[in-house]
Specification:
two-stranded antiparallel ribbon, binds adenine, Trp Operon Repressor, Chain A, elongated, 2 domains
Length: about 220
């Protein structure tokens, strides 16, 4: 899978150069290409934003640099989705992540300041995604979260194939508790069943725990 990300602040995407995403990219499971919108800026100052028509605070990303960048990318490949990260998009959840992980090429547009000119949304954007009901300074952090969530579930990204499947939300349940050594810590003992070696009993215990935790914390998921 290939993910292109358009941004005015490429350095904010640096979390994608670490951990599981980095390993997945190194292994060839996914490609991430970051495009600095400034390179498509207008004039000597490489202008990418301007004041909003009608007044009001903040700046708006101009249509021409975004369209030049998108047209350059579209010459090379068609995209399954061109996604604009915005608080007024559909709220991201695991189901949407799973669906996107099946695509071959997606392009993410990170807004900044007050957002992007509406005409880019009308002309190019096929999907608008929010990572939650709060406003960030820009779409980059949202793009990092979306990219991480997609790439970590691609086959081969995580060593233990089962691991991503047993994440919270993959079956609409929160994950059961996990423990590691030592067996006793501050008088707190690891549940006996996890030490039993009985995998059927362990699976049953995990499912019971997942159900109970989901019932208590997120009954809306059930
Ligand atoms: N840009 C600013 N806030 C955002 C949010 N909540 N989700 C996605 N993109 C954003």
């Amino acid at each position: 899978m290939r993910i292109d990300i358009i941004t005015v602040l490429p350095e904010l995407l640096s979390p994608l150069q670490h951990s599981i995403v980095k390993r997945a990219v190194d292994k060839g499971v996914a490609e991430i290409h970051v495009h600095d919108l400034r390179q498509f800026g207008i004039g000597n100052y490489k202008q990418v934003d301007d004041y909003p028509y009608g007044g009001g605070g903040g700046m708006v990303l101009k249509p021409e640099p975004l369209s030049d960048c998108l047209e350059m990318l579209l010459k090379e490949r068609a995209y399954d989705e061109i996604i604009y990260l915005t608080p007024d998009g559909i709220t991201l959840n695991q189901k949407a992540v799973n669906t996107l992980s099946l695509k071959n090429n997606i392009c993410l547009i990170c807004g900044h300041y007050k957002g992007i000119d509406q005409r880019i949304r009308d002309e190019y954007v096929t999907l608008e995604i929010s990572i939650g009901d709060y406003v960030l300074s820009g779409g980059e952090q949202a793009a990092v979260i979306l990219t991480d969530a997609i790439i970590r579930i691609l086959p081969g990204a995580i060593g233990d194939e089962m691991s991503a499947l047993s994440d919270s939300f993959q079956d609409n349940l929160l994950a059961p508790p996990v423990y590691t050594k030592p067996e006793i810590w501050k008088d707190r003992k690891v549940p006996e069943v996890l030490l039993s070696g009985n995998h059927k009993a362990i699976d049953e215990w995990r499912l019971e725990q997942a159900l109970e935790i989901t019932r208590n914390k997120r009954p809306d998921l059930l």
